[in-house]
Specification:
Order of helices and strands: HEEEEEHEEHE
Radius of gyration: 18 Å
Distance between the termini: 50 Å
Structural class: alpha+beta
Largest sheet: 5 strands, mixed
Low-confidence stretches: 1-21
Strand content: 35-45%
Number of helices: 3
Shape: globular
Mean pLDDT: 78
């Protein structure tokens, strides 16, 4: 195998691995995401704080992953409980500049069938594998999200 062929294959593999999570178009990134909207018995919604921003938990789809699988995986990784999606609530579509790239976000928010599994989440989420991604969790009234909520 020639050095040139080997270099091209390693370059293609790196580009392929990058494309598994984000889709690039010129200097832009397209990233679909799934987000479970989790309510407790008092009707408060679970939000997470990450890098000084509050948001509904969730994250980007892996290549070939369905929204149901994505939401189950993300909720298990971040919160330690697997969410079972019920129905779509809304879709959020926005552009964000994250130098050096521009990002196009398309986020799907789903209600959850098993909200009761999350009742004690504030006490138990530290056992999840990706809790290092979160600074804080809280139950919030849907009419009074924090100012830095996205």
């Amino acid at each position: 195998m020639s050095k040139r062929y080997s270099y091209l294959n390693s370059y293609r593999m790196q580009a392929y691995n990058n494309a598994l999570t984000d889709w690039y178009y010129q200097d832009r990134v397209f990233r679909p995401a799934g987000r479970p909207v989790i309510f407790n018995q008092q009707g408060l919604v679970l939000i997470t704080k990450m890098k000084d921003l509050w948001a509904i938990p969730g994250g980007g789809l892996d290549w070939g992953e369905s929204l149901a699988t994505n939401i189950a995986r993300e909720s298990f990784e971040e919160l330690g409980v697997q969410a079972d999606i019920d129905q779509i609530i809304f879709i959020q579509d926005y552009l964000a500049e994250k130098p050096p790239l521009g990002w196009h976000h398309l986020e799907y928010f789903y209600s959850i069938k098993n909200n009761e599994d999350f009742e004690n989440i504030l006490e138990t989420y530290q056992t999840a594998s990706h809790t290092h991604e979160l600074d804080e969790l809280m139950w919030c009234d849907i009419d009074s999200f924090p100012e830095n909520f996205m």
